[in-house]
Amino acid sequence: MRMEIDEVEGWLRERLPGLAERYGVPGVAVAVDAGGRVVEAAAGVLSTATGVEATVDSVFQIGSITKPLTATLVMGLVAEGLVELDATVDTYLPGFRKATVRQLLCHTAGFEGDVFTDTGKGDDCLERYVELLADVPQLFEPGEMFSYNNAGFSVLGRIVEVVRGEPFDRCMRDHLFTPLGMTHAACDPYEAILHRTAVGHLGGRPAPVWALPRSNAPAGSMLAMTPRDLLAFARAHLADEGLRAMREPQVTLPDIGWGTAWGLGWELYDLPGGPAFGHDGNTIGQSAVLRIDPARDVCVAVFTNGGDRKPLMKEILGRVVETPAKPVPDPTVRPDTRRYEGVYQSSTSRTTVSADEQGRLWLDQVPLGFAVQAGDEPYRTELLGWRGDSLLPAEPGHGPVAFLGDDGEGRARYLHTGRADLRTADRTEA
């Protein structure tokens, strides 16, 4: 393994600057941990406006990779006997809607999850945010299926601070950062400014906003750190047997090109070489990936601040860990146009699926709300046969979509892309 990690280190130092330039990524930072030995590399700039160089000590936002950290704080409460996974949330937050702690951790609570309401910068922001969730739609019964839910992790953050009796940020620092020696981790812009800090880029320019609202902090709105610090957290999950339960499958994922299942905060991958786990994260112009291969005792983190980051990340990950095979259309699968046609909507997109005169199926998606702020753009693509009710967009850069459920008339009730977007005829706003 030592020779392998030496080769990875040499490859990163030689190739990373060129990869960043090829894909138009302003700045990138990478860390790899093999058996406890860490190698790091960085390239590019933290902001095209300032030209400040990206280094291995620079902090980038990790976005939704924050969720496994929040889940780890919850599991700490479980280990201390202060929280029960299968207790209803209203045990800790009186009056909260029907759901259990476990369902929040594995994204099966069923209520609309992309809620990014700004409830201020004070220590009461999570309390105020959770109160607002009483008004968001319930898409399906709790436990019925998986649908990625940002809001649910803000609720978990509120549980942490209520049970601990301290603001969420302080719980994160006292129970994770300090014990794990994470010295370059910032919960907010006030801490981030003490470090070399990356700025997100949209359309090749620095984003006008550095972070999303503090009310979404437990879900991943502003936590920033170095790849090295994130790997200290990942290493703890390989070393601590008490955290192994977080890798146990809780719900099988739809066939959408993601992992195989979701655990308690972790996305789980069943690969030919063995199981792996990790998480991705995206904020305003910044993206991050974390992958952990327990059998080989390897972890890798890649952070970027803009540009065409997906192929860059894929190339780097492929040098270190096994990655899922690229989906390929199956010409023998004929899409059921009547089942799939319709309009599907969530708080972040409105998607129209229609058939043309030749029987080809087309998807037209318009971003809404937070997705617009994050830089998503409308797109149109043909949908090609792949696996049963899961189809492949012909347009590069977009993952598979799945059509799930039945509206009672033989048509799909949900368009699933990680989130379950409801057919508009079935959707009622609270």
CATH topology of the largest domain: Beta-lactamase
Q: What is the name of the CATH architecture of the largest domain? A: 3-Layer(aba) Sandwich
Computed Rg: 21 Å
Topology, number of strands: 21
Number of domains: 2
Describe the fold and architecture.
With 430 residues, this protein is an alpha+beta fold. The protein folds into 2 domains: 1-325, Beta-lactamase, CATH 3.40.710.10; 337-426, Lipocalin. 26% of the residues lie in helices and 23% in strands. It contains 11 helices and 21 strands. It has helices spanning 2-22, 66-79, 101-105, 125-132, 150-164, 168-180, 189-192, 227-239, 309-320, 337-340, 370-373; strands at 27-34, 37-44, 60-61, 185-186, 201-202, 205-206, 224-225, 251-252, 261-262, 267-271, 274-282, 287-293, 298-304, 342-345, 349-355, 361-367, 379-387, 390-393, 401-404, 414-416, 420-423. It has an 8-stranded antiparallel sheet with strand order 2-1-13-12-11-10-9-8, with helices on both faces. Helix 1 (2-22) runs antiparallel to helix 9 (309-320). The longest helix is centred in the N-terminal third of the chain and has 21 residues, at 2-22. The model has no long low-confidence stretch (mean pLDDT 95).
